[in-house]
Amino acid sequence: MDIFTAATTAIVTSVLALSLKNRGELAIMISICGGVLILLQFLPQISEIIDCMKAMAQAGGMDGSYITIILKASGIAVLVAISSSICKDAGQSALAVKVEIAGRVAILITAMPVIYGLFNVITKAMR
Amino acid sequence: MDVDLIFKIAAIGITVTALQQLLMRSGRDDQAMLTTIAGLVVVLMMVLNEVRGLFDTIKALFGL
Which residue, of A8, A92, B7, B30, has the fewest CB within 10 Å? Predict the structure, then answer.
């Protein structure tokens, strides 16, 4: 699927969801489905980008574990963005905020080793 | 798993709405409600299947 198919899918999905506006629950399910289909077609291409960035970072000499952490944080951000936007579309912005808070906590936990390493470097430099 | 799924869900939605209106006009309100709920559950299962596939792909891709 190229970008044209993705754009057309998005337009067709929005029009169909609009036509089912009096059945709000089906409209949101159609929009979820359309969004999932577009993402599923583009995720393999993202995997190539990720491989390129991994190779570049390793050639640049960065520690492998830091790349994993950055990747996990990006994945959590993507997931939380998808989920919170669906919640907002369904009119539940409070749920969207809670999902975003959960995502921040998850990213913080994932990045704990980096923060710890920075803390160690700073304390070592201060002694 | 392509664009046909969206049309399938739209078709199910329109069918369920039409059936619900039909049953309500002929006075069988409880059957109308049952049809609505059944259609909703069917569509929910289909959508959740796709969402599960998406989340599995994201998990494998980002190493979560």
Answer: B30
ipTM computed for the complex? 0.81
Q: Which residues of B touch A79 (CB under 8 A)?
A: 55, 58, 64
Average pLDDT over every residue of A67-84: 91
pTM over 0.90? The answer is: no
State the smallest CA–CA distance between residue B44 and chain A in angstroms: 7
Q: What is the 3-state secondary structure (H, E, C) of chain A?
A: CCHHHHHHHHHHHHHHHHHCCCCHHHHHHHHHHHHHHHHHHHHHHHHHHHHHHHHHHHHHCCCHHHHHHHHHHHHHHHHHHHHHHHHHHCCCHHHHHHHHHHHHHHHHHHCHHHHHHHHHHHHHHHC
Averaged over A68-84, what is the pLDDT?
91
